[in-house]
């Protein structure tokens, strides 16, 4: 992660990793096999941090839609802020990779499942409708995140917008 932070994702290779870690090249290759494997491992680590933060935040949610929406939105955007520019750089470096496409699909499915479980008590939507609403909300969150990352909006505004979208999309 330090290599990506300091020099960008393009500078990360198994050779540079081995050199910076002070291990032999075979150790790096035995552990990750390929550069894509290394990048995917980093991406999975970032994803696991986000899912853990979301679960922890939802565990404190009062049984109200607006409060749950606020917690979900804050967890999403706080996680992006905490991850820094490394996450988009790693994701971009893996674009076009079948492994990454599979991982992103699994991540979306996991996140949508978490959203559905958290929002189910507050909606009149059936399971399929709620799932589709959550998929749409996740797409909206990604678009809002791009706006924030490009400096077009502040984090507080992004959080408020996503929270409002959640509540309005699934509320009874």
Automatic annotation (TrEMBL):
Database matches in Pfam families: TetR_N
InterPro entries hit by this protein: Homeodomain-like_sf, HTH_TetR
Domain of life the protein comes from: Bacteria
Record-linked Gene3D superfamilies: Tetracycline Repressor, domain 2
Keywords assigned by UniProt, alphabetized: DNA-binding
SUPFAM superfamilies assigned to the protein according to its UniProt record, in alphabetical order: Homeodomain-like
The organism of origin for this protein: Mesorhizobium retamae
Domain HTH tetR-type as annotated: residue spans: 1-50
Start-end of DNA-binding region: 13-32
Protein's name in the database: TetR/AcrR family transcriptional regulator
The organism's taxonomic lineage, starting at the top: Bacteria, Pseudomonadati, Pseudomonadota, Alphaproteobacteria, Hyphomicrobiales
